[in-house]
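Sample entry (325 residues):
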Amino acid sequence: MHEGQGRAHSSHEMRTITSLYLLFCLLVPSALAQLQFGFYGPSCHRTGSIISSVVSSHFSRDRSITAALLRMQFHDCFVTGCDASLLIDPKPGRPSEKSTGPNASVRGYEIIDEAKRQLEAVCPGVVSCADIVALATRDAIALAGGPSFLIPTGRRDGLRSNPNDVNLPGPTIPVSASIQAFAAQGMNVDDMVTLIGGGHSVGVAHCSLFSDRLADPAMDRTLNAQLRNTCRAPNDPTAFLDQRTPFVVDNAVYGEIQRQRGILRIDQNMGLDGSTRGIVSSFAQNNDLFRRRFAEAMVKMGSLRVLTGRSGEIRRNCRVFNNGR
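Predicted structure, serialized as tokens:
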């Protein structure tokens, strides 16, 4: 199976895939020159089927892996680019990105490890951990009812994982600061609203991350009371970010935001700020538009500052640099 394929596509999905390819050619010419659709066709044609099988197996037991993988890819790509630097385990005297700040709660590494082990058994030293993350995330999105799309591959793994590089936007960041953070990565306001909303259409947040929202008198009263009750429990419990369809990648979270039911401050503020309110409204009204833009934004994010050619390496173990550092 082509590594860009996860399953048979409908005619609507094929039109989306074609438009994604054309968009990628137009918007990311430098990345296109480096990444390729079907990169592993000649060298490891089972890449796609192996990763899809691993992700499907985990998803059948735990639907929350979609949120976990989306967060993993975002946290990796927004630091030093999509280079799997987040996957490196810390060692005594040598911390890594994985052990720093918000990354400490990233999960799903066992999925990447399992896919890597199976790929190394049939195609040793060929498929990068960075590409496994990108393909696994794409497959998990489709399994959760989100769009199916092709992504170009050929990423290589980075040789650096420094906690000092980690500076990720948090849940209480103002919209203007979030716009600046995305712009620094070459992404626009539409990309930001798409990726934040889409990423928060699944998954949970700990009460400590949205306590400020509970003090907001504008928050939907029923939801506020429900969340206050949830958060009375010990050990910082969690609540679904999308109260309507918490395991489905869709546009429901944007409708929730319009009804003052955004869980995180950044989500709710996107529905209030003049620079983002219109995009939130468009997505709330049109799930097809959201699906198309989310696929486009994921392809764009997955191409941030990638290593290709002879840069970096192809790790044998995603948690350790090949030289053992």
